[in-house]
Amino acid sequence: MDKIFRQAAQSQIIVNAHRVNGGEAFLKKEEKEPDSKADFFYINESSQEKILEQIISLCTGRLKKFGNYDFFENIQILTPTKKGMLGTKELNKVIQNVLNKKQENKKEKETANTIFRVGDRIMQVKNNYDIYWEKHNAKEIGAGVFNGEFGIVTDIDEKEKAIEIKFDDEKIAWYQFSDLDQIEHSYSITIHKAQR
């Protein structure tokens, strides 16, 4: 698709994505439409350490000050890889330790070198057609949570050996500790996962 429709053209993310796909450079400030959104800016860094500092700074206040963007509501870190300092595995650990720090009164569960903590942003990474869920407000029940669904850890019950997750569509599901391989932190996700 080569045409960008009027509403999409207001987003500098969409405009610049099309430009990159077409082999062009990002739009310069003077080239932007007057009614375009301030939803894109480019930071040129070559050092992984500096890039990590920029990511942390953006997630912990700069974007809040810039446009009242809340990390948990409006921001998703995308990276091309799972490995390395700027891969999802390390970024998720770093961002968890910055945005959802260990606290004495905050419940957490460690499993297979991963710590899940109440308040963590997670993503389902395997289809599970059998897991039971309910929506409290709609008094709706059902089964099935699927690869790519996002949620927040809302409770951890050591006695029942389970973690409660509230998904973005208001589904609430309990995961047994033995099923935690079905979820991953999602402060940062790969570009591949974002395309699903």
Produce a short descriptive summary.
The chain is α+β, with helices and mostly antiparallel strands and 196 residues long. The protein is 28% helix and 28% strand.
Overall pLDDT level: 90
**Rg over alpha carbons:** 19 Å
Structural class label: alpha+beta
User: What would the CATH topology of the domain at 103-186 be?
Assistant: SH3 type barrels
* DSSP summary, beta strand count: 11
CATH class of the domain at 103-186 equals Mainly Beta
Strand order of the largest sheet: 6-5-9-8-7-4-10
| Low-confidence spans | none
Main beta sheet: 7 strands, antiparallel
Spatial shape? globular
Q: Which quaternary structure do these chains form?
A: single chain
- CATH architecture identity of the domain at 103-186: Roll
Please count the helical segments. 6
| β-strand amount | 25-35%
- The percentage helix is 25-40%
Order of helices and strands: HHHHEHEEEEEEEEEEH
CATH superfamily of the domain at 103-186: SH3 Domains
N-C termini distance:
18 Å
Word description of this protein:
This protein is an alpha+beta fold. Among the domains are: about 1-40, no CATH class; about 105-185, Roll (SH3 type barrels), CATH 2.30.30. Helix content is about 30%, strand content about 30%. It has six helices and eleven strands. The chain has helices at about 5-10, 10-20, 50-65, 70-75, 90-100, 190-195, and strands spanning about 75-80, 110, 115, 120-125, 130-135, 140-145, 150-155, 160-165, 170-175, 185, 190. A seven-stranded antiparallel beta sheet has the order 6-5-9-8-7-4-10. It has a two-stranded parallel sheet with strand order 1-11. A two-stranded antiparallel sheet has the order 2-3. Strand 5 and strand 6 (about 140-145) form a beta hairpin. Helix 3 crosses helix 5 (about 90-100). The mean pLDDT is about 90.
